[in-house]
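Because discrete structure vocabularies remain unfamiliar, we reproduce here a specimen of the format, pairing a chain with its fold in token form:
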Amino acid sequence: DEEDAQLLSPARAISFHRSVAQLLFLCYRARKDIQPAVSFLTSRVRKPDEDDWGKLKRVLKYLKGTRSLPLRLTVDDLTMATWNIDASHAIHWDCKGQTGAGMTLGKGAITSFSRKQKINTKSSTESEIVGVDDAMPSVLWCLYFIQAQGYNMTHALVQQDNKSVILMEVNGKMSSSKRTKHIRIKYFFVTDRVAQGDIVIEHKPTGEMWIDAHTKPKQGTPFRTDRSHVMNCPINVPDETRECVGSLTCRDSEIQRCNR
């Protein structure tokens, strides 16, 4: 409850903001596995409270325990970019969804993001359509950039786990029903890109969607499995913080030291 939340002092709020900014830099370059957590923390920098402080320390503890985890990228085919795009419906406190998207040319996510959606949606189908629209600028930019380097990449392959969404994206309003006729036409920009041949959409089972961890909080084996695809690392990574075993947070002094 926002009214009962205990806000951080100005000094700790500044430290919180600075640490989140550092994590934002890190998650888009080397540690893509923390993008969902950082996406949430960036929405809390205006009025962080003690609960947010605890979430920040949990992320730092996770990073400390996996500080040797590298992002490994392999390229199998420079003529085929494969995108995983997924979305979770009404996962935030204001009932907005979360979009997760990532691209690979073989193993490991070359580019990825986890982002809160800008509008409220009425169903998971609509959330996934909005999620694809959120990802379209990145999908097309990567396609055109690789083509500009001289590689014969004819289209980008987009994988999704919702067959109803795929039908609507391929056929546009022709596949829309009474439940989806309210969706604005701008979210069918993807239909035009499919017709132009820039994008090919295929179905992929939910259990094989490695970007799923970028749309919702996951723990245990499901999280480690998705992380292994994003980071191209083993599923089980040893914990490097033996001294922190049993603790859910890092010490406040460690955050202050990181900010110096």
